[in-house]
Amino acid sequence: MQFSGRRRKVITSPQVELYGQALQFYGQPPLENMSLSEFESFAVDRLKLLKTIENLGVSYVKLSDDYKRKLDNESRNLNFPYRPDAVPDDRKSQVGPSEYEKRRKDHISHFILRLAYCQTEDLRRWFIQQEVDLFRYRFNGLQPKQKVEFLHKNNLQYDTISVEEKKTLQDKLVNSSHNVSGITVEDQDFYKVPFQDALDLVRTRKVYLKAGYVYIPHQDIVAIVLNDFRTRLSKALALTARSLPAVHSDERLQPLLNHLSHAYVGQDYSIQKNVGKISLEQIDSLSVKSFPLCMRQLHQALRDSHHLRHGGRMQYGLFLKGIGLSLEQALQFWRSEFIRGKVDADKFDKAYAYGIRHMFGKEGKRADYTPYSCMKVILSNLPSQGDHHGCPFRHSDPELLKQKLQFYKVSPSGISQILELVKGMHYQLACQKYFELTHSIEEASFSLNHPNQYFIESQRVLGGGKDIKREVGTPQRSQENSAARGSTADREAAAAANAAKDLPEMTEDLDSFFQDA
Amino acid sequence: MPSSGYDAACLPDLLPLYYRRLFPFAQYHRWLNYGGVQKNYFQNREFSFTLKDDIYVRYQSFSTQTELEKEMLKMNPYKIDVGAIYSHRPNQHNTVKSGTFQALEKELVFDIDMTDYDDVRSCCSAAEICSKCWTLMTIAVHILDRALRDDFGFQHLLWVYSGRRGVHCWVCDEAARKLSVAARSAVAEYLSLVKGGDETVKKVVLTDPLHPFIRESLAVVERYFPQYALHEQEILSRKESVDKVLALVPEDILFLFQCCIYEGNKACSRAVGNSKGQHFEKEIMLQYCYPRLDVNVSKGVNHLLKSPFSVHPKTGRISVPMDLEELDTFDPLAVPTIRSATVLNARVSEDVKEKENEKDAAERRKIRDYKRTSLAKYVKYFDQFLDGLALSWKGELLKKSDLEKDF
């Protein structure tokens, strides 16, 4: 080490080079020793960050100003890097960890969570989704020059097309995407990329596709980068899964990793409590009183047409399992309903009983399927002609939704509040509002993310069990409280406060665990 | 639609005849073996059979064409489905360490089912089809075939009549077989324009600019729309169907129409035509005619789909490949059934042997009938398809042998 008077000397060490870039593909795992407590706190912090990303992604349009602002805040609070132009060895009067330390934390925590989230398809899918969203937000924050630098450093070489070809394809290129104008075509390079490397653009038809290649202007290369990131991470997780036995043999790590992977979903309602406590006769009245709208709709459709298609059977069947129906009850329930329709007992036993047993883990690979969370219902398996599954707040025409709510005797002012939330794409908040209106309470004490959670909370309210807690929140929140009752910001704060409450509790548990050890 | 008095009770007797004499095993194996370029491609392919009394068996696999023939003759399947190529022989999957038995490759497939159009066809519903609504399948094949070739660059597409109420497409290019789940789902979504279930009234929404894919698809729909929708389906003839159409028209346009009727003002219709971003006429045509595909069928690498040349047990019709040159005259109700194929074949092959040089017009007509309604022409078309596919193998095999010589 060299000292030269007062002038700050730039000391280059291998570590600085390692974290020289703000953004990375996480290609190389960290190679250093660290304490268990740092290991644990890094992991928990990243988990909080990813959970925030998940929640923000449902409530806001990704990369909108609100979204970025909130994510900036969260990154800052958790000591993760959020300013891409900070220099790694900048140690000038900074409060808290340096940029270098933040990047190191980012690097290490990512790899720890890989260990926790590589084990099952569901965990992997969730982890990859949040990491991709995080990457997108960070890449978006880079300057154009830094973006190009990133591309080159990571070997994404795609061919550009000639000027003549650009001219020939000009109209088609302009018509294929909103942000491509005649000027774009003239000024920018267009890259020819195999369609398999640009699936997001293909899926949403936002790009020109010819003979298996998509034509992308330089400005849009981010989608490609994201896809590449996703693919690399997916492969890496598969590899990580294979080396898990070695990791699990370290007794210090196994409990922590298990705890981490269960934390993300909170409760997944896969372990059936109260099996058999619900009788089939109760279901009709329960569907009106305590089912979320999606399940009420499915139940109604089932009663009306004595049939549900596969998507509906899965969504509703697993929900019923989650509220405590036993396999025998489920079989009886579906059978008696289907028989009223066009299906005779024989056909039911042959064609449908298998599927129900499958849901309960009694067939095939004997996986015990978990009831769908709101996220899953909203995002996957779009309903099509003849289907009744999905989230009504997301998938129904607003007009039809309105009629349905009127039919279910929701007040006109309540209906317009719900429709406002739907317009803003806050589907879970809309459902929560539906809960509040149908249970005649001012404010739900929970943040809705699972249909079975809706059911349990509803039963709690109706059974007069636990008190409905008023939200004890941050000062910021109580200001908004007095300013605008029932505004969306209110809900956000409540939701965020709720989410934030869970994780500190979890960390406390982890702390005490380690103290015992 | 009664298919000439078909009764599933005939299957136990006719299926053995069909499998012994008509099922084109040689071509079938030639297809699924893909030139032997990849080791164990045929051996690791999953088949599933549905036997008499709805007994369903999965994870069937065969080492050779002969073994496939033997087993099919023995088991006499009512339905045959083709699945993926796995990492190990499917019939040994229980011996493989859990987690390592995986589906690796499969053709990219599409399934267009007429029941998905029930809300827009008035002539039939559910499992019925007729010549009037079959046009929907014609339109679907034209649109998807063009898109898969021109947009995605695929070359080896096998279109097959499902035997009852729809069509399947098997994209057999190597690149297609190697596609991931995410890629398959992306392709299917690119091709999807009609979205929403029973709860959605307006299922097609277009915004500016119109993507070239939409323009191309519209061009196909517009070719068929007047004859199909206005003439055959008569969507503007009865009040209830008119109402259904009007439900898809935006309110402000309807208001303008009413003005026009009152004022008789020609300027109105021009105004309507120029309304910015209003594509309701195109949206209506697409909602009535654009192909509706089930994304879930195309997504899964391990998805099992009805095999070409298998029999549809509910109709007795054979799943035959469709020659796209004759697409517009394809008649699903003239597709050979297991009865017509086996019986006709039995009768004629005897006659043919006896009267090979018969110049009698009646006999010639009989032989011509045989050729027209029998399986022969479909097998011939399948051969042509395989010839095209084989060209792609030749390149691969040469490459492989070159590499081997280097060592």
Shape descriptor of chain A reads: globular
Q: Total helix count of chain B?
A: 15
Q: What order do the SSEs of chain B take from the amino end to the carboxyl end, as H and E?
A: HHEEHEEEHEEHHHHHHHHEHHH
Share in β-strands of chain A = under 5%
Topology, number of strands of chain B: 8
User: What is the succession of H and E elements of chain A?
Assistant: HHHHHHEHHEHEEHHHHHHHHHHHHHHHH
The major β-sheet of chain B equals:
5 strands, antiparallel
Instruction: Using the alpha-carbon principal axes, give the shape of chain B.
Output: globular
Count up the helices of chain A. Answer: 25
Please give the radius of gyration of chain A in angstroms. 26 Å
Mean pLDDT of chain A: 79
Hey, which two chains have the biggest interface?
A-B, 37 and 41 residues
How widely separated are the two ends of chain B? 63 Å
Spans of chain B of at least 5 consecutive residues whose pLDDT stays below 50 are none
Distance between the termini of chain A: 40 Å
Q: Rg of chain B from C-alpha positions? A: 25 Å
Strand order of the largest sheet of chain A: 1-2-4-3
Task: Tell me what the structure shows.
The complex is a heterodimer of chains A (517) and B (407). With 517 residues, chain A is an all-alpha fold. Chain A contains 25 helices and 4 strands. Chain A has helices at 14-18, 36-59, 65-77, 99-117, 121-140, 144-153, 163-176, 182-187, 199-203, 221-242, 244-248, 253-263, 283-289, 293-305, 310-323, 327-339, 345-359, 374-379, 392-395, 398-407, 412-423, 427-438, 451-462, 475-483, 488-516, and strands spanning 159-160, 190-194, 208-210, 213-217. Chain A has a 4-stranded antiparallel sheet with strand order 1-2-4-3, covered by helices on one side. In chain A, a hairpin with a 2-residue loop joins strand 3 (208-210) and strand 4. In chain A, helix 2 packs across helix 5 and helix 21 (412-423) runs antiparallel to helix 22 (427-438). Chain A is globular. Chain A starts with 13 loop residues before the first helix and ends with a helix. Chain B has helices spanning 11-22, 25-33, 65-75, 131-151, 174-177, 181-190, 212-232, 239-246, 251-263, 266-274, 280-289, 295-299, 338-354, 361-373, 376-406; strands spanning 45-51, 55-60, 79-86, 103-105, 108-113, 157-161, 166-171, 305-306. Chain B has 407 residues and is of the alpha+beta class. Chain B is 48% helix and 11% strand. In chain B, the strands form 2 sheets. In chain B, strands 1, 2, 3, 4 and 8 form a 5-stranded antiparallel sheet that branches. In chain B, strands 5-7-6 form a 3-stranded antiparallel sheet. In chain B, helix 4 (131-151) runs antiparallel to helix 7 and helix 13 (338-354) packs antiparallel against helix 14. The N and C termini of chain B lie far apart (63 Å). In chain B, strand 6 (157-161) and strand 7 form a beta hairpin. Chain B is built from 15 helices and 8 strands. The chains are: A mainly alpha (517), B alpha+beta (407).
